[in-house]
Amino acid sequence: MYSFSLPFRMKQSGPSAESICTSGALDMYGIVQMLAGQMRQNMVTVLDVAMPAPSLSVNQAQQSLLGSLQPLTPDVAEDVEDLHAVETMNIHGAVTSGSQRASIYEVKDAVQAAYDSSLTMPKFSHLSVATCPLPIPLPFPSIFGNMVGQHGELLETPISGSSSRGSLEVQSFPMVTRLRSSTAVLPFLESKLGNLRKFGIDRGALGAPLLQSWGFGKDEVEDMGETLSKLVVTLKPQYSSDSD
User: Which DSSP string do the residues of 206-241 spell out, in sequence order?
Assistant: First the structure.
């Protein structure tokens, strides 16, 4: 959440103003319009995360920046080519070779190089960058392996004598988050639609009494199903109710 909300916390600068610490400020309305206000009106996005983010050194950026992002949204399709995809990416605390903090311009150049070398590109993308890394609060679980350095950099050799590291050993780390409005979310939506019909809408559905106990009447559940169905149709024009 801290990384996802990064653009909202940036100071809005004038069109000619530049900052050496942040770039790409957005408000919540702007990001919603960017991701959901396009032609397809897709309200469901895929959340990808890289934690810690890889180094932006010249010999690594093109290979690992985009590849390091892993979806937190379940049941998403991989390697989907979507000519109408729209995405926003937030990067903060990125490092270069030697674990040096990358400048705003270095991050922008690395992201552009990664897109240029990628087989697929979004129709539109927005980048928000901050040089400040994500701080690790005290206390914090020892979730980092022995290949993560003090400032979240990925080491070439493991640290001996420790299999896991916490906030005493890792003080901060670089992070990348990305929101994608893409057809990659179709399997997720189709799964939710199928489960809602099977357990909440169809005659004799086992979950109908439970939904009613939660305050969802039959009409409301059917409205939810219709909304999900429209989302699927929006992303997959060849979809039809006969194919369920």
Answer: TTHHHHHHTT--HHHHHHHHHHHHHHHHHH-TT--G
